[in-house]
Every structure is written in structure tokens, then in C-alpha cells.
Amino acid sequence: MFSALVNAFKIPDLKRRLIITGALIAVYRVGCYIPTPGIDGAALAEFFTRISKTQGGALFGIINMFSGGAMERLTIFALGIMPYISSSIIMQLLTAVIPALEKMAKEGKAGYEKINQLTRYGTVLLSVIQSYFISLWLENPARFEGLQIVMHPGWGFRILTVLTLSTGTIFIMWLGEQIQERGIGNGISLVITAGIISRIPTALNQLFVLISPFAASRRQIQPVTLLVMAFLLAIVVFAVIMITQGVRKIPVQYARRIVGRKIYGGQSTYIPLKVDTSGVIAIIFAQSIILFPATLASFIPNPGFQRLAQGLIRGHLLYTGIYALLIIFFCYFYTAIVFNPNDLSENMKKYGGFIPGIRPGKPTADFLDYVMTRITLAGASFIAVIAIMPDFIMAWLKVPYLVASFFGGTGILIIVGVMLDTLKQVESHLLTHHYEGFIKTGHIRGRR
User: Fold this and answer.
1) Which of 81, 275, 385, 417 has its CB surrounded by the most CB atoms within 10 Å?
2) Kind of pairing, strands 247-254 and 268-274?
3) How many CA atoms does the CB half-sphere of 406 hold within 13 Å?
4) pLDDT tens for residues 229-252?
5) SS3 279
6) How much is the pTM?
7) Are 287 and 60 in contact (CB under 8 A)?
């Protein structure tokens, strides 16, 4: 692996791309520490310390994770890239239900650029709306148990906050696109991953305090427990890699066609159906829905609503069960949106392709739907287990959620998926220039 890293810097183009990627990520991390004007940072930190122990703390924790800690400090990048992710998901859903957008998506590169431009407009709109409501929320001392977060409330602060936070999100979006174009890897995904990885030093510090190797009287975690945690982490990472890369290969045979003196087709190939099509999107949807009542309960002092929300907070059996079912549902929902067996069947029929033993047309579409439904169940069940694993780790090993979150959940799925994708691109450059890659066979598992 180390020889492959050295070889990566011997290729001028790849070296330039790696340096540009690292520099742009460094710019993003610096921006996560530039505060928004007009905010009392000490009072805000006190508020987040209090709310982390309530129902609403879970949702703020998720937003804070995606923003790389910028939300907790309310910096210029406080909104993070979430408005862009939300806009992208909305556009994907609209593309599946609006014929004009569906037609646009089939226009190739030109259609992709049009949809990408609409996604950018949606990002700006969502950023303005979210930042405006954040400014109103910050101005209300009743929300902060008497803490004065905003030093000079009013329209001046609101306009400044909207401009600052919206510009920050647009700048992050631009950074992601620059990484995509001039660097290596998926820019937006790398920005999110950098924010999640930035939490590792804090988690390790908490773990060190719990172990207390130089003060046995204050030790809360035994060395044996630490070994168990390391073993579990290795298993979780291995399992996530296998499911992320896992595909069901459907064999496809193309009939021979004679056009003039030339023969076309006749080759065999396969359709790779991913076991986990939705990835982390199903978890994001499920978290947003299940945490919504608990978040509202922290602001609405209604006894009935409070009792309902009490059963839907992290650690309760009802929360775990509903959360897992929501993840499975959204895995199927997203797969149904992005995978269209009828279109796939028609394209195969158009170019003379068929699945051995299956008639072209509707029987092929029914077969693909049958297979996809069953492999999605396996992928959705695995994603649900990974998502709820931090709760069990936290309860079983008595560790803080920040430490337990690296044993599953959204963070581990994003880190593993993005690192695999980036590794594939680096591997591709190495093999193109006849260098030995990270894997001795020259292939990353799952690409054969």
C-alpha cells in the first residue's frame, strides 16, 4: 500500500489532483472555524451542552456531524452541504414523477447539466429559507433557557445571517465541484467525509479519558473492553465494505446481427444489481422523520405531545423498532425511484439483448423486479442493523454516543463508501500509467 502511495506522487497529473483535493479540503476545514457575525460563542456553546442531553440533541447532533462541527460553533459553514443534499434528493424524486424532467435526464450530458443547474438553484433557495429561520430562532432567548445568543437582534442581524450562511453553503458547493473537476474523488462526498473524520480526535480523547491508563481509580473502560471494541470495529468496516461493493450479476446475451458485411453483437455480459442501492440516503430520511416529534417536543410544552416524544428518543425499544422499519421502507422507496426494470428491459430488447431463459419484454422486467426486491431486503436489513448498532454499543459498553457512532450509523457508511470510491479512482490512474495498484492483483474487490 505504501509503495502505491509513493507511486501516486510519481504521476504528475495524479499528484496535482491529490494536492488540489487536499488544499480545497483544508480551505473547507478553515471555514468551519470562522464565526458568524453577531453571535455570542460562549452562550451558544452552553446551549449545545444543555440540549445534547435532551430529545432535540439527536437531530442537532446529526446536523452537526454533516457540517463537520460548524453548526455547534455556528460558523459561516454552519448549514454545511445539507441544503445541496436535500436539493439533490428532491430533484431525483421529481425526475421520477415529472415527465419533462425525466425526458431531460435522458438527454445525456446536456440534460445532466440542466438538472445540475436546477439543483444549484434549489440549494440557494433552501439555504436562504433555512438560514432565515435559524436567525429567527437565534434571536429568541426563550428557546435558549434565558441565554442571550444574539448580541444585536433585528433585521440587520437576520439579513447578515442569511447572506453569511447561504454564501457559506454555496461556497462549499463550489469547493465540491472544483474537487470533482480538478481533484480526485466525488467532491461533495469528500467534503462530508472530511467533516465526519474531523470528529475522530474528539472521540479518541473521550475514549482516552474513559480508559484513564495512568489513573486506575478513574478508569471506566477495561482493556478487555477496548479490545472487544477494536474487534467490533474491524468486523463492521469489513461488513460495510462487502455490502457496499456487493452486486447480483444478471447474465445478458446479445444476439448476433449481420449488417452488410459486418457482424454485430453475440457477446455475453451482465447487469450488476447493487445489494445496497440507497446507501446512506435511507438513514437520512428515517432519522429526519423519527427525530422530528422529539425535536418539536423540546419546543412545544404540551403534556400529550411530550409523552409521545418520550417514547421516540434514542435508547427506547419503540424508537429502535420504528427506526429500523423506516430504514427498510426508505431503502425500498429509493430503489423503486432510481431503478426502473421496464426501461432496462426495453433498452435490452432494443439492442437485441436477453437474459438466458427469460423472454424479452415484460417477463424480463418482472424477473428484474423479482430479483431486485429480494436483494434489496438483504441490503435494507443490513443497513438497519448498522444504523441501530451505535445505540447497542452505547448501552452495552457504556461509552458516549460520539465514540459509539464510529461503530455504525451514517458516519461509517459515508466514510467507507467515499474512501472506496476515491481509492478506485486512484487505482485507475495507477493502472493506466502501468504502476502497481493498492491490490496486488490490480483490482479492487468487486470490480472484476
Assistant:
1) 81
2) antiparallel
3) 21
4) 888 888 888 888 888 888 899 888
5) coil
6) 0.77
7) no
Residue 373 CA to its chain's centroid (Å): 23
Environment class of 173 (CB within 10 Å of its CB; exposed 0-12, middle 13-18, buried 19+): buried
Query: Three-class SS of residue 354?
Result: strand
**Mean of pLDDT over the chain:** 80
Pair 125, 118: CB distance under 8 Å: no
268-274/262-264 β-pairing? unpaired
d(CA 137, CA 119): 27
> Which are the contacts of 197, defined by CB distance < 8 A and separation ≥ 6?
415
Nearest to 20 by CA among 193, 185, 198: 185
Q: ∠ CA(205), CA(209), CA(215), 5° rounding?
A: 140
* DSSP helix/strand/coil, 365: helix
Q: What domains appear along the chain, each with residue ranges and CATH number?
A: 12-198 (1.10.3370.10), 219-407 (1.10.3370.10)
Q: Decide: 91 and 115 in contact? Cβ < 8 Å.
A: yes
